[in-house]
Amino acid sequence: MVKFYQHSFSYDHPWQNVTLAFWLRYPNPFASHVLAVDVLDRYVDEQGVLRTTRLVLKKGKAPKWFPKTFLKNSEAFVIEESEVDPKSMTMITRTKNLNHVRIMQIVETQKFQVGNEENTTTCKSEACIVSRFGWGMTSRIEMFGQSNFAANASKARKGMRHILQMIREKQAGGRLPFFHTQPSS
Amino acid sequence: MSSSVGPDCTELKQKYDNCFNKWYSEKFLKGDTTPECEDLFKDYRACVMVTLKEKGIDKLLDESRKEAPFPSTSFGENNNNDNKQS
């Protein structure tokens, strides 16, 4: 497996809102390929950490050169595991595709923490990709996965910002509680 | 709000999601970690599990859980454990 993507960026929103936006991020105008999201497991552990497993159903998209016989089913299931620790104000999420794994598996991990400036949140993201397809197509598939991933990551951030803006507007209207976070030292 | 994989479960999901979102922002993030919405979750989850079984996704889920525990402690390091998936 190759780690191919590492990225760090910041949201101009308090950490609490970013973690709430993570739950609310589908549907959004930048994720029309997401068909359904379900919570499969959720509990607060002994340390007070909220642990969640969700299943996301996406419309698949294969490159034109990919042999159609191997993709009878274009639905892609993605499993998303996460933990939110309200004491340390850290949210860690990990997503990976459940089916089509022989063609390509992408595992993405993200870590959300309070930023250095007031009411900002940093997100560190990294992704790994592996194809076990063989037939001389492995590197081509991995390349496709990499270029596609970067474009999708950008769309995912736009989707999060869209939801964050909606949360901000709701808070201004008094329909959601306000959060205020001090920068981490 | 997003739909459920089971068209029949979407209504149960939305009831649960509404409850969770309120609990999450008004209680959990403010330090009260006592769970709420458990009954709504039980009904919603039971509905989803039926759909997953019909679609054959339940087996994929079981395999996926066997192979990779949540790697929260290894974030930022090389996730070498992930190489062992076959």
TrEMBL record, chain A:
<dbReference type="InterPro" id="IPR037365">
    <property type="entry name" value="Slowmo/Ups"/>
</dbReference>
<feature type="domain" description="PRELI/MSF1">
    <location>
        <begin position="2"/>
        <end position="172"/>
    </location>
</feature>
<dbReference type="Pfam" id="PF04707">
    <property type="entry name" value="PRELI"/>
</dbReference>
<protein>
    <submittedName>
        <fullName>PRELI-like family-domain-containing protein</fullName>
    </submittedName>
</protein>
<dbReference type="InterPro" id="IPR006797">
    <property type="entry name" value="PRELI/MSF1_dom"/>
</dbReference>
<dbReference type="GO" id="GO:0005758">
    <property type="term" value="C:mitochondrial intermembrane space"/>
</dbReference>
From TrEMBL, chain B:
<dbReference type="Pfam" id="PF05254">
    <property type="entry name" value="UPF0203"/>
</dbReference>
<dbReference type="GO" id="GO:0045332">
    <property type="term" value="P:phospholipid translocation"/>
</dbReference>
<dbReference type="GO" id="GO:1990050">
    <property type="term" value="F:phosphatidic acid transfer activity"/>
</dbReference>
<dbReference type="InterPro" id="IPR007918">
    <property type="entry name" value="MDM35_apoptosis"/>
</dbReference>
<protein>
    <recommendedName>
        <fullName>Mitochondrial distribution and morphology protein 35</fullName>
    </recommendedName>
</protein>
<keyword id="KW-1015">Disulfide bond</keyword>
<dbReference type="GO" id="GO:0005634">
    <property type="term" value="C:nucleus"/>
</dbReference>
<dbReference type="GO" id="GO:0005758">
    <property type="term" value="C:mitochondrial intermembrane space"/>
</dbReference>
<comment type="similarity">
    <text>Belongs to the TRIAP1/MDM35 family.</text>
</comment>
<feature type="region of interest" description="Disordered">
    <location>
        <begin position="67"/>
        <end position="86"/>
    </location>
</feature>
<feature type="compositionally biased region" description="Polar residues">
    <location>
        <begin position="71"/>
        <end position="86"/>
    </location>
</feature>
<dbReference type="GO" id="GO:0005829">
    <property type="term" value="C:cytosol"/>
</dbReference>
